[in-house]
Amino acid sequence: MSEKKIQLTASEIASLWLAYMDESMSKCMIGFMLQHIEDPDIKPVVQSTYDISSNRVNKLLTIFTEERYAVPNGFTDEDVNMNAPWLFTDLFCLTYVNHLARVGMLKYSGFVSMCSREDIRNWFTLGLTEMSTLYNQSTEIALSKGLSS
Question: Which residues, 6+ apart, have CB-to-CB distance to 93 below 8 Å?
């Protein structure tokens, strides 16, 4: 006897769409930053941010495909001029990642609370854990650089 898969709720679909929009934007922005960052203390946490967003975008695409839902028109490489001149400092990038992680913790905790299906709750819980780790890492680096968060 096969188990019937529980359909996504409206709040789960909305959460997944919002997560896709946020993560696709983050991937584009952080990808641009990675081309220019030189500080050996900052670059790894920015790279980690990019990897998290890239992995989350890929997982969201899988979820949309498996559930037979349309993929949102998120951000793509076409939305970023990768040849644009560098506008930021490495410290700005670190601060950006730190704020991104703060918002991510709030966002993912909200998503967890709006989801019923176990697989979706678990996936958003993982996102919350990743954002917490990213926040802690970026905060420690900021403090070592003389910045307060």
Answer: 33, 37, 42, 46
pLDDT in tens, 32-56: 999 999 999 999 999 999 999 999 9
Please give the Cα distance from 66 to 141 (Å, whole number).
Answer: 39
Whether the model clears a pTM of 0.85, i.e. scores above it, the answer is yes
Token pair 């992680």: residue: 101
Of 48, 141, 47, which is closest to residue 91 (Cα–Cα)?
A: 141
Q: From CA 30, how far away is CA 94, in angstroms rounded?
A: 10
Grouping H, G, I as helix, E, B as strand and the rest as coil, residue 90 is helix
Q: Where are the beta strands (DSSP E) in the chain?
A: none
Q: Which two tokens stand for residue 39?
A: 């500080």
